[in-house]
Structures are given as C-alpha cells and as structure tokens.
From TrEMBL:
InterPro entries: Glyas_Bleomycin-R_OHBP_Dase, Glyoxalase_6, VOC_core. This is VOC family protein. It comes from Streptomyces auratus AGR0001. Residues 8-125 form the VOC domain.
Amino acid sequence: MAGRPRFSLTTVVLDCPDAHVLADFYRRLLGWEVTYSEPDWVLVRHPDGGTGLSFQSEPGYQAPVWPERPGEQQKMLHLDIRVDDLDEAEAYAVAAGATRAAFQPQDDVRVLLDPAGHPLCLFLH
C-alpha cells in the first residue's frame, strides 16, 4: 500500500427501538436538523455540517445498564456534550426527554440517559 487511504468520519450511529423518537430528542437537545430520514433510520447534523448522529431502529434493541454490571447489557459508547451551565443544560435535557442517571460518578459531570437508555455526559467547557 502506497499510503494511508483517506478516511472521514461522517456519522455515529446509535441503535434504538425507534429511530424517529431518538432522532427527535437529539434534534431538540442539540439544535440540529434532520438531513435524511427513512422508516427505520434518521440522520441529524449541525446546520454548519460536521459529523452527524444517525439513529437506526432495531427490533431486538436492549438498553444498556448504567453503571455497568456483569451479565447485563453493556453500553457500547456514550456521548460527551460540552455545556455552559450544568444545571441549566440538565434541566433542558430532562425537559426534552432525558432522565438523570441514579449514579453520578463526578461532581463536574452530569450523566443522563437518553430516551433509548444510552448514557450521555454533560460537562463544562
């Protein structure tokens, strides 16, 4: 091979029970736009472009457990979202459909669960 081929990360895909429900949550949370939609797959992206988030409906989806416990569904990834104010951002996210995780490992990070149960972390910039 003469060199490394060009790679460009365009989207991160989250499996979930309903792609449209989860896409709508993240669209509202992040202020992004739906740029492509099919019955079981939706892409949202910042209006200025960049890496997007896609959501794929999976009939057998099982939500991860937070914090992880042996023998239970493990998370495969989580999203880190930088915010200006933790309390304000948490309240907004909860109003949009997130829930606060019972386990909070750090004072300067808020762990929330999106409507499909994926953990997401809000942190100050």
